[in-house]
Give the backbone structure.
Amino acid sequence: MASKPYVIFSLHDGRYAIAAEAVKEIFFLPELSPVAEAPTDIVGLLNLHSVFVPVMHLDLRFGHKFERCHLTDSVIVIESQGLQVGVIVHQVETVNDIDEQYLQADLSYGREKNISQAFVQGVINLDDEIILLLNVDNLVRHPDELESLVVGEDSPDAKSSASNFYEQYFPAASTNTKEILHQRAINLQGGTDDSESGELIPIAVVSIDGNYYGLDLGIVREFTKIERVTTIPCCPPHIIGNMNLRGEILTLVDIRHPLNLGIDNHRQPAKAVVIEVDDIVVGIAVEEVFDVVDFRPDQLKPVPVATDTNIAAYFKGMADYLDRPLNAIDLPKLLTQGAMTVELAA
């Protein structure tokens, strides 16, 4: 049977899918500009490569209870009938090719559909878990209203203060969080240059013991919360334990030990960055996932000479991130050549 690629993402405890052909871009939530008289599900406008794109929150679109945005929320830019709209979700997990035999289209409740029910196009059975397939055209159900929000740079609405965005949708945002969201918005404004894009290094910015570290996005499979960890007897200290990730047993690793980093017991890892290097799939325990940014190779500076040479070998370099140092970790080398090799292979 024929198969098609679908983008799989989560919202609260539910998993959803969108046809990959309708997805234009995916990135972490940036600061948004609010717009007066916008539909209730539209959080604001995003300046994406000098084009203003309306952004909706999926909770509001579904009519669910809305609490607030999160720093780790993602935006999926979808296109319907020539109109691009951003959709805020909690986490983008992966892109899967799914065979038609696992898809039940035209989900029926035995009654006439209303607007909220029309968003669900069908059900996908993936690894014995139900994933709801969303109808992109129905998510962008009122194109005339949305098109009226796409304003030019000289429009006063486009330049409105971002304070309302934080007051309404991100009331708990700290000063540092606002700086990160603002910088994300700036990074998305410029046009793309194909001659330079191939030289950029995509880095996932995470926090470990309150400091910034960078992980190569090319080996990152997904970000997830740490839940229900099962300890493994007689393991070295850098092995936290095993976690069930949608039926897959994932080993969680604390890289503070092999990198000889300071361990602050008051800062417990809450997130895991799932990486895949060769045949190794492992979760790297971190406190928070802050951002995904592109660095030019010349922005990575050498590791300070004073750094222990045994540890410096596992860093690609240093960069500045929000006026603070960021150390880029060479995870493939750490996992395959470092002190963790024997234990992970066991």
